[in-house]
User: Which sequence fits this backbone?
């Protein structure tokens, strides 16, 4: 009788742990989805910046073609500075993108680990149930 009571208690504990793990998995999946969304937004921003960069380069080329060089030197310098700034921003964005991807990979690994733990817990639960039935 006492053994059966202990087994039932253990079963209850395991079920609670299982529930907790499932909640954690759900949370992790939500986090992954959010990260994916953020990644997509960043990619969009990156594409927009690239487009802007191309447009600025085109403008610079046009100015070079139309130039009377002595009058346009300050403007050209300004444009070059702007281009440099834009490139720097692009680099930063790429770095952020890389970081996000890394974070997503880590989260996926954690998710896999949790799933494995869940599987182990389920096996343990089944064994316990079998013990109870005997």
Assistant:
């Amino acid at each position: 009788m006492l053994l059966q009571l202990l087994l039932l208690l253990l079963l209850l504990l395991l079920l609670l742990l299982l529930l907790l793990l499932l909640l954690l998995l759900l949370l992790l999946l939500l986090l992954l989805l959010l990260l994916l969304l953020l990644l997509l937004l960043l990619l969009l921003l990156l594409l927009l910046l690239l487009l802007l960069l191309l447009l600025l380069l085109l403008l610079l080329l046009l100015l070079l073609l139309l130039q009377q060089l002595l009058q346009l030197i300050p403007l050209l310098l300004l444009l070059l500075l702007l281009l440099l700034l834009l490139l720097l921003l692009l680099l930063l964005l790429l770095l952020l993108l890389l970081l996000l991807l890394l974070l997503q990979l880590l989260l996926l690994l954690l998710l896999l680990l949790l799933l494995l733990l869940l599987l182990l817990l389920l096996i343990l639960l089944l064994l316990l149930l079998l013990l109870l039935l005997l």
